[in-house]
């Protein structure tokens, strides 16, 4: 490389560097404080034969589902345990349909009551506690429905894949949860 070419390259590098936005110019993400309440893993599993995604914070219960043929799919999110001290947390209700073999989770008490009222699902307790609004370092837990399978994920790529490739219908945000 000729010296003059090198000089031009260096000047151009310098100009690129000085044109780059500084940290204070760049748009800042909304800061959501992590409120520090202890969370537990919300474990996820899938049964091909039941066409069902199942979630629980209870490892013993998960082991029983794995023994029935569900396949472990890691940790969907971190949620608050039942003895949560978080004042703004709400229950994540769990419902079950033996007709379709589907586990359904909702943080919306009205939706829970309406779903029970329709008669296909029975109450299956409380899965844990979540937030109705985005606070305490939480991210959206999205809900999708494919045929009879209610599916929940925080992963937007997975949302796209399930919607675009597997034909699931997107139902928006079910709750806000911690991603770790
Ligand atoms: C966890 O699940 C097991 C098996 O279903 C159950 O016996 C136990 O009571 C559960 N533990 C809690 C803390 O809910
Ligand atoms: C809760 O569920 C009811 C019944 O499905 C619905 O009308 C309402 O908009 C829901 N509320 C929220 C906050 O999503």
Automatic annotation (TrEMBL):
Signal peptide boundaries: 1-19
Source organism superkingdom: Eukaryota
Residues annotated as domain DUF5648: 41-177
Keywords tagged on the record: Signal
Pfam family name, one: DUF5648
Protein name per Swiss-Prot or TrEMBL: DUF5648 domain-containing protein
